[in-house]
Amino acid sequence: MSSIMGLYPAPFVAAMKARGIAWFATVTTAAEARAAERAGADAVVAQGAEAGGHRGSFEPGDAERAAVGLFALVPALADAVSVPVVATGGIADARGVAAALTLGASAVQIGTGFLRCPEAGIHPAWADALALAAPEDTLVTRAFSGRAGRSLANGYARAAAAPDAPAPAPYPVQRALTAPMRGAAQQAGDVQRMQAWAGQSARLAAAEPAGEVVRRCWDGARALLG
Q: pLDDT of 129-186, one tens digit each?
């Protein structure tokens, strides 16, 4: 089982352990990793600031303030905890896999790098926009749900970040407020209004079957690591 945006309570963890279920806890800082290990996590998933989608910060207010890049986070966590570290955020090809493993990760987790695969089933307009996105074409925004997440810097996200724009409502109120817009954007194929989550390595995502992506990343990483 995995967790994000916090930790499971002790009775729930005990029930997992009694059933032999491993717990992978998503963390964004060394302090969160240490707390997860103390709580009984079997591995920590180090989510770097490059990652697409919602930030996994335990405290919502820390999502922007404590945004740590993956390749600073991984070695810090490898030194801070004794459980395995899984690296995620900005990894979409063999180079990223090899780099993460070199820095102390035991495994990697790819997110945005799979979004253009046919199995993901995202809207073609979103998939096409990922193929064109430079790292700086994403931003962290609370405008879609009220919690911080990395998205394509589309028209709505940029407008919501303007100095004179109203502050987003708290989660999950903002999510409900934007639901009609997001639904209409999907129907119209309008990526400028979609909740188009994207990591900073979005442009590396390949439009090919997920199995091919996995094989290329792993075979390439093994070759790089010798």
A: 999 999 999 999 999 999 999 999 999 999 999 999 999 999 999 999 999 999 999 9
* Sign of the CA dihedral with 114 first, then 202, 190, and 168 last: positive
209: domain CATH number is 3.20.20.70
To the question of pTM greater than 0.90 for the whole model, the response is yes
- Residue 113's domain comprises 2-225
3-state secondary structure of 72: helix
Q: How far apart are alpha carbons 44 and 39 in whole angstroms? A: 11
Question: Which among 20, 27, 123, 111 has a CA at the least distance from the CA of 66?
Answer: 27
Domains in the chain: how many in total?
1
Q: Which residue from 71, 77, 72, 78 is spatially nearest to 100, judged by alpha carbons?
A: 71
